[in-house]
């Protein structure tokens, strides 16, 4: 298969980890006889520094013309504490999601047996946990109108959802559930929010088309609690943008390391793959960042194009690295490998 | 001291648990020679059933005229799954918060040594955890304009914050920090939300008035993760309404039981005390609900009026009950006591 992959390393540890993922994808191409072409572009703080724009038009163009985007990380502390910053690195990612129409963010979370000891949760609570979050990614309060009053004394964010936006994600979530344990949980705050009530109604309507899948509802506050009390109860979690952002980071503790969690963001025409962790500025350039989330994002990319054998080869390599303790510092305190060395091991194992 | 206390049992297990809290407060009044007067009123689903209004004017009037409000719980499943319900029980609580101007919700979370085994988190992660969440309670997306388009195809919630709303809560949080470990963490989503940027700017400005307190910032997604990874890092968490709702329910897992968590909601003139758990409809009337959160809310009430000895007596009683295993089913599976019996024990211990 021929694939044109746009590579957007981004900020912080983004470049280091993406490099490992590209290395692994190249090994996959070689072993399975595919033609993967990679082209890099800038985004985020790096792009602001170079061009003033966190998503330069050429970057968006490259991504729109590619079969898939491999994304690193975004964000830089120098913008976080400056409430007056006119441009922000994150805007690059948000514009990219919107520009490519990536409305569905898919975040699988699994408890790796080998890593049970790394989780802050008791092993018996998480062993066997296997859930996936379907987060709406191009709507809600992220993309609603934002404003500050003229005197600077008040600020507003608007959260809007249309039935259409809810429907298209809901279908994906139910289809995923059909291939899994056949259970969808809609997380919302329908006792307070009008948008949540629209979600509840729309999702309930659609659920009647999927008679083999059960649907239940959970308020987001309760969901945040249940996620820790009993993560095994969840199969597919369906939710809006902001709640999905919070819940998926929270859910990362189940796996024992956020350094392992990958995500896919898909739309009608494009698909982007990125680790759920951020740019981790404190670790930048030190060779300690865990490349596995980026590499598993690459596996999701392969899966997206139905390259199942190939995706499995990557996942098997990761399992083996965990088994052999070929891990970065976050997972192997005393005898750790560098970002590069973990990448080398995985590349070699393909 | 003479105190007029409005009692609003509300829905579900609300009446059962509130009854125990009143019993304990009566014992406190007797032992410490105070004059506490209790007057009951309806709210929530119970009030809708009786009057069509989840917060009848007489209830609000009673509360406004009282020194404090003791609140049970609110919510009924028959309204949750009906997106077209015109009135909702929760509206009663929201109107009450707004009507009484209860802008600050204070939720302390502590890991009880005796209950470490009940937490889904590993004991070493939580032992010694002691944090308090200052949640804004009368603003944000909870109280912004809500609308549905005429064709019913889209819905909107508006989130607005003013500098004033942020300031008054921030001062309370910093004052609390001064009496604690002198650390405030503002949780927001300033990389996406305009309101969060106003929070960040306003809180940073105010922090310069409290030179003995340190301030740091955390994005809400990261905070949801850190809350589980390392809850001991937190002292005072300051945040807006929706994030506070989510984080405080999440934080409840630290203590080992949501059945122990109390909260105070305070304003310029009024104060309301309620457990953070909900109406728990499945348990209603079975005598299995844990009354301790309501009783500890009563302790916060006493504290609010500087009745420190009295509050301590209640807390000591609770500690003793945990120690003696005089606990409801959630904490003592095999040999549990009923809601009433736990109340009796605590009453007797005062
Ligand atoms: C960087 C940030 C804007 C982003 C988000 O909030 O969506 C990130 O947290 C994520 O979840 O991908
Ligand atoms: C019942 C509900 C409206 C309420 C809220 O969301 O504020 C509850 O969850 C709480 O936290 O007190």
From TrEMBL, chains A, B:
Organism superkingdom: Bacteria
Enzyme class, first EC level, given as a word: oxidoreductase
Cofactors named for this entry: Mg(2+); Mn(2+)
GO molecular function: 3-isopropylmalate dehydrogenase activity; magnesium ion binding; NAD binding
Places the protein is found: Cytoplasm
Annotated substrate binding sites: 97, 107, 135, 221
Catalytic activity, EC: 1.1.1.85
Residues bound to Mg(2+): 221, 245, 249
One BP term from GO: L-leucine biosynthetic process
Textual note on the cofactor: Binds 1 Mg(2+) or Mn(2+) ion per subunit.
Pathway assigned to this chain's UniProt record: Amino-acid biosynthesis; L-leucine biosynthesis; L-leucine from 3-methyl-2-oxobutanoate: step 3/4
Matches recorded under HAMAP family: LeuB_type1
Matching PANTHER family: 3-ISOPROPYLMALATE DEHYDROGENASE
Protein name: 3-isopropylmalate dehydrogenase
